[in-house]
Model the fold of this input.
Amino acid sequence: MMILGLTGSIGMGKSTVAAMFRAAGVPVFDADAEVHRLQGPGGRLLAAIEALHPGTTGPGGVDRVALGRAVFGDAAALGRLERLIHPQVAAGQRAFLRRHRARRLVVLDIPLLFEKGGWRRVDRIAVVSAPAWMQRRRVLARPGMTQARLARILALQTPDAEKRRRADFVIPTGRGMATTRARVRHLVACLSRTPGRYEGDA
Done:
């Protein structure tokens, strides 16, 4: 099995690229979706999160805005929350890999692949990237997003240039959907067919 780690900074189009891998028939583990499931209605982590931060959960699951206010800018609180969540996400990831162990290629969609050490557990890394001006335009179009909030988020993420430098493959999302889709299909064809080192350019 070839495990491809898929990552990219905020606003780079990683979710769109992950959907393209799925459309090409590749199983994709979405770390963010797993977190949402754990924190959603009836989620396994609700009681523990409520114990850490009272008033941040309810019948609909975690109130992400309230939880964000509780931990943002507080490294100790964020660390406690991550120590609660990450083992559960890792367990979901292991179950995913067991389910798909007969497949030649699977994708682990992990936003903080470099920041949290996930790069050590994949065979190859694909980074989704777009020009900085396009990234900024996409993110600032989101409801509730501000320049200051974007700056804080980017400060917590490995810079895009560093991600591209460490990547085995770069998937561009700033040149149109057709170009991005062609790159994904090319990677799927090559990585599904040939074990070992992919000989294409990064």
In short: The chain has two domains: 1-23+102-197, 28-99.
